[in-house]
Specification:
25 strands, 17 helices, alpha+beta, 5-stranded antiparallel β-sheet, 5-stranded mixed β-sheet, flat, 631 residues
Amino acid sequence: MEMKHRLEEDDLYQRFAKQREAEDQRLQSVIGEEWEAELAIITSRFERDLAMKKRNREEAKVLTVRHNREKEELEKNMTLKRDQTKEGLTRKMLEHERAATAALVERHSKEMMRLIQEKRLEALDPSEEDVRLYPAQPPPPLPPPQAKTDIYLSPDEFAEVDQLAIQVAQEDQKTFTDLVRLLVGQCSSDVEKARTIFRWITVKNLNSMSFDDTAHGDTPMALLRGIKYGTESYHVLFKRLCSYAGLHCVVIKGYSKSAGYQPGVRFEDNRFRNSWNAVYVAGAWRFVQCNWGARHLVNAKEVPKTGNRNKSDSLRAAERKKKDNNLRYEYDDHYFLTDPKEFIYEFYPLQSEWQLLKTTISLRDFEELPFVRSLFFRYGLYFPDDDTKAVMYTDSTGAATIRLGMPPDLQSSLIFHYNLKLYDSDKDTYDGTSLKRFVMQSVVGDMVAFRVHAPCSGALLLDIFANAVTPREYLTGEPMKFKSVCKFKIVCEDLQTVMVPLPDCASGEWGPVKATRLFGLEPITHVDALVFAGREVDIKFRMTRPLTDFMATLHRNGYEEKRLNKFVSHRVEEDVVTFSLTFPEEGQFGMDIYTREVSASNAANPHLNTPPEKHLLTHCCKYLINSSKRN
């Protein structure tokens, strides 16, 4: 059957080639005729003007120069018009070719599924009733009865099938039958079959493969020619491979919050149209997004190339084995069997039943959902407030708060950062001050809060980043990569209160939680980030492990830091460290606290007469202090 399908596909691609050639010739003819007509007009005008000026050599020379310039300009304009027309025509033809390819793959998939179902029935013992038999016809779209975590808890459970997919991706196969047999031949469940196909596509790095234009239908590269020509997407390829594996699969069309999207944007045109899959496994339809799941080589200088005919198989195998020792394949597991309640944050199907939700939502509801990325769900984050939306409006004081909930097992390792800029530009300052100083980030229990104070009316863009690291990793001082987990549009329609920036302290969260998390430094007197004090205050901590070299700095808008040094001091008494502050005047101050750990060897043997091993002096925490006589 595959050979029959291949012949039909060959015929389709031949028709594509003929149509493209015919359209190209037609375009060349139309542009050529228009070019000749315009050239005739300017030439006629030149000859007429020249005849009138023939006795004046200087004027004739000027006319000749102008005529040559007009011809050059005409050539440039007609070439630009041809290229633009060809680009638009190619885009329309590609859309038609994609639709034709998808329709062909749809028919081929049904025929393949029908054949596989017949073979399954032939293999069954008529005297036995197999209640686990995979459905012959695709079931209607309904919400899955189980969550993804009920199917598997960790990608590590697929270690063997993932490795198999990686190995198969290193070689080229001549038929889909051979490819799928290698991928699913050892799989024990339909979930494993879908998994190996998903991982093969995410590993293969189809977009970077080199192709031979002379490849015939029975060559490895011809197998994936649809990817080369742009007529076959990852989603159509996934559907095709699933049919060879005997799995029901559909391609779903709709909108996605993809590259270039910002919170608050309306889906009013085709700019953010996208496609993805649902595959029927584990007794239900489940989402797969191969394109977004593809994360390819890490720490590799060169992507393995397929189909290189200039080297012997043995030499290629030796080179591949050498490279494999240094390669690590990354992908995003979130986009395999994604739960509908999470998938709906990024993808909205045109057919509402393919939301796979018990209660469907409207396109407007989709637009209002917070703009989140897969890392948001990987870290188990959630929104504790029901009124959290993609666009948040400030109150009359210009303030808006976004809160994220954290799972208990990650509260000690999740670190957040943020960026604030103007919504319609990359400008991140206001009146010469960083917009970051108009956001107060704090952690209380299992919640991290970002309170934005808009310095002016208008729209801002808040981007929240996160990373999960151990305290030990954080204290090494090595740079950390933070990735975006969610974005919000902050709108201030009418600012009635003049907002001043927070004191220029170190970036990151306010409050003592960071000190406890990183250094085991527990607050005794002040557990909140915001402190209300008189003209002086003592802030005390208890050390749960040896620390040394405490340092505190005081900050206030309009003051140099060194002018405030004399107003803050500290003392250590047994396991209690006290920071004493006096304030030169009433107002708002920020205090940064720094410390470093005592090395393990010195802590274990405090009586050794050896200099302590120095760790990095690291920012510990910061407080926002409002000093007033009334406090």
